[in-house]
């Protein structure tokens, strides 16, 4: 019989990103970042993939990151609510431009450092362990304008300075770190993922993989420094995950699924195993991609692999080697072919709880390193009553089914899983679309797509449901 509980010390919690919730984009010396200048509306897609040059705010556009949900000024209220739910951990990210407003300064901004110190102390007040993403799509605009973002090797120096500053200042306050959020996003949304804007006629694949090399070396350097500064530090990588299924048993569909999976696992192969896989080297050879590396790069990748692997999971994907098959899912940066056996969310994301167990097993089998699910959730339109209460049984059902398959992966398959943080534990701005109406949270925030609303917080039905899940260590989910 399946055990209903999770391992003792399992880290239940929720996740947010600075650029989607903090707001206060110019407060206390904070500089402008790439994530600030992505507007809501049809231009957002071209901006985040590096095809539409928008290096500053332009007239006639609404930029939701300017205000977010104003967590910069309300974090105490929000963390108190997380504490009430019983969070064991809270995954959040650092806004790089709060610490180094331009990115290339020699000295950090004290007000930015103090803000996060206060926030981490607030977490500890409620027994919440911070899980900190160093870079959740943030890249200072100055570094993009001056150096071209992560295509430039100079970024390693700036990132190393940021990491050293954070690990030193927050020693004893933070022990779980992630180097780059969804590092494979560099291939799909390169401006958002790495500050890459492409000029006419540029070899985009070459630029993306060169930038990827810089981020991978930077991640290894960060891991090295973290362990040197505090032996208690645990450093993880972070992948946008979701297994590809072949569309049919046709061998070419199976082969296409393998190749598409490799696109993402390539990054973790380097971060967890410490070397570039042969399939990637062969692919670069075929495409004429030449990665500029310096002496010592491969050594540092080999010697400083991550302690654990974290990932986001929202849906599985479907692959076909037949170019005539084109019926794709809607609304996701990782749009794939539709799976006729699955239901979909209001944004066209296919709902596949068993896919989470499959993904957990594939990653565990591949790397044999502890895993951490740091994003999972259902984006939906919530309709609150006059008190801001939302009857979100659809969200509860979605999360419950995913918790069950996660539990099966641990108890029946032997997967080592450290924790689970649901995405957008409080409503926040969507990274993909910039919308507020696409809500994930246990806590409703009164704000609409146009930035109108009181910003008042109120508990949804799922708030008390998740509180019970945490209190019973998962046993309440039958």
Automatic annotation (TrEMBL):
GO terms for cellular component: cytosol. Belongs to the glycosyl hydrolase 1 family. GO terms for biological process: carbohydrate catabolic process. Keywords: Glycosidase, Hydrolase. The active site is at 375 (nucleophile). The keyword Cell membrane does not apply. PROSITE patterns: GLYCOSYL_HYDROL_F1_1, GLYCOSYL_HYDROL_F1_2. Its EC number is 3.2.1.21, 3.2.1.86. One of its GO terms (molecular function) is 6-phospho-beta-glucosidase activity. Gene3D superfamilies: Glycosidases (3.20.20.80). This is Glycoside hydrolase family 1.
């Amino acid at each position: 019989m399946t055990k209903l509980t999770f391992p003792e010390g399992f880290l239940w919690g929720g996740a947010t990103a600075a650029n989607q919730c903090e707001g206060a984009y110019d407060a206390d010396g904070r500089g402008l970042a790439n994530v600030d200048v992505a507007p809501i509306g049809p231009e957002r897609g071209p901006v985040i993939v590096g095809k539409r040059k928008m290096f500053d705010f332009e007239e006639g556009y609404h930029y939701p990151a300017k205000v977010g949900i104003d967590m910069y000024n309300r974090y105490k209220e929000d963390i108190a609510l997380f504490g009430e739910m019983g969070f064991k951990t809270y995954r959040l990210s650092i806004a790089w431009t709060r610490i180094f407003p331009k990115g290339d300064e020699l000295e950090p901004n004290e007000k930015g450092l103090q803000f996060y110190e206060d926030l981490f102390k607030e977490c500890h007040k409620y027994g919440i362990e911070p899980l900190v993403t160093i870079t959740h799509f943030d890249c200072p605009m100055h570094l993009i304008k001056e150096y071209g973002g992560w295509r430039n090797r100079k970024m390693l120096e700036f990132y190393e300075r940021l990491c050293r500053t954070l690990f030193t200042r927050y020693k004893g306050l933070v022990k779980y770190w992630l180097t780059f959020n969804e590092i494979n996003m560099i291939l799909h949304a390169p401006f958002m993922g790495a500050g890459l804007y492409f000029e006419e006629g540029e070899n985009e694949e070459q630029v993306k993989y060169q930038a990827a090399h810089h981020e991978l070396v930077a991640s290894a350097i960060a891991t090295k420094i973290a362990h040197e500064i505090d032996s208690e530090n645990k450093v993880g990588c972070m992948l946008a995950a979701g297994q590809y299924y072949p569309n049919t048993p046709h061998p070419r569909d199976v082969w296409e699924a393998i190749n598409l999976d490799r696109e993402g696992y390539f990054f973790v192969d380097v971060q967890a195993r410490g070397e570039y896989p042969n399939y990637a080297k062969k692919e670069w050879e075929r495409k004429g991609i030449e990665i500029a590396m310096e002496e010592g790069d491969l050594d540092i990748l080999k010697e400083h692999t991550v302690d654990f692997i974290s990932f986001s999971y929202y849906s599985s994907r479907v692959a076909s080697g037949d170019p005539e098959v084109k019926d794709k899912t809607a609304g996701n940066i990782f749009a794939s072919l539709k799976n006729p056996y699955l239901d979909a969310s209001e944004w066209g994301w296919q709902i596949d709880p068993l896919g989470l167990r499959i993904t957990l097993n594939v990653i565990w089998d591949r790397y044999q390193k502890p895993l951490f699910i740091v994003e999972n959730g259902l984006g939906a339109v919530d309709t609150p009553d006059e008190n801001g209460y939302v009857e979100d049984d659809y969200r509860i059902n979605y999360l419950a089914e995913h918790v069950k398959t996660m539990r099966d992966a641990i108890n029946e398959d032997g997967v080592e899983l450290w924790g689970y943080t649901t995405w957008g534990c409080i409503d926040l701005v969507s990274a993909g679309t910039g919308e507020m109406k696409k809500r994930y949270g246990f806590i409703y925030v009164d704000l609409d797509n146009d930035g109108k609303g009181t910003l008042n917080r109120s508990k949804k039905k799922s708030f008390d449901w998740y509180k019970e899940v945490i209190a019973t260590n998962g046993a309440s989910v039958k």
